[in-house]
Design a protein that fits this description.
5 strands, about 140 residues, five-stranded antiparallel beta sheet, single chain, alpha+beta
Length: about 140
C-alpha cells in the first residue's frame, strides 16, 4: 500500500476591512474566496519561490475548476485572521488546495474547504499538463 504524500501548509494573516462587510454586518461569503486566493498568491512567491508571474511568463495559469467552502462562524469588521493553505494532492492535470480560515481572537475556524485547480495555456485557454519541474517545486 502506497503512503499518501503530505505537503507543507502555510499561513497568511489578514484583517477584515470595511469593504469586506455585507448587509448582514459580517464578511460576505464570496470574500472568503478572495482571502484564500490572496493568501495563495503570496505563498506561491514567499514559500514555493515560484510566483504566479513565473507561470504567466511561461504562458501558463491556474484556474479554479471546483471550489468548496464550509462556513462555520462569521468574521466581522476588524477581525484578524489567518488563512492556512496547503496542497492536498498534485498531479499532471492539476492540484487540490485545502484551506482553513481561523479567527485569531477566538482561535476558532471561520470556514474551511478546498479548491481544485487546473493548469491552462493562457493563449488557448485549454488545459495542459503540469510539468514534473512544477510538481517538484510545489511538493515541499
Amino acid at each position: 500500500m502506497e503512503i499518501p504524500k503530505t505537503y507543507s501548509r502555510f499561513k497568511t494573516e489578514f484583517k477584515v476591512r470595511p469593504d469586506d462587510i455585507d448587509m448582514f454586518n459580517h464578511v460576505h461569503n464570496s470574500t472568503y474566496f478572495d482571502y484564500v486566493l490572496a493568501a495563495r498568491y503570496e505563498q506561491m512567491e514567499v514559500f514555493y519561490k515560484m510566483p504566479m508571474e513565473t507561470f504567466l511568463e511561461q504562458g501558463y495559469g491556474w484556474v479554479v475548476r471546483t471550489a468548496h467552502v464550509d462556513y462555520k462562524r462569521p468574521l466581522g469588521l476588524g477581525d484578524t485572521f489567518t488563512v492556512e493553505t496547503g496542497i492536498e494532492t498534485i498531479n499532471p492535470k492539476g492540484c487540490r488546495v485545502t484551506f482553513e480560515i481561523i479567527n485569531l481572537k477566538t482561535g476558532k475556524t471561520s470556514c474551511d474547504g478546498w479548491f481544485d485547480y487546473v493548469m491552462i495555456d493562457t493563449n488557448t485557454g485549454k488545459g495542459v499538463k503540469v510539468s514534473e519541474d512544477m510538481i517538484l517545486r510545489y511538493s515541499i
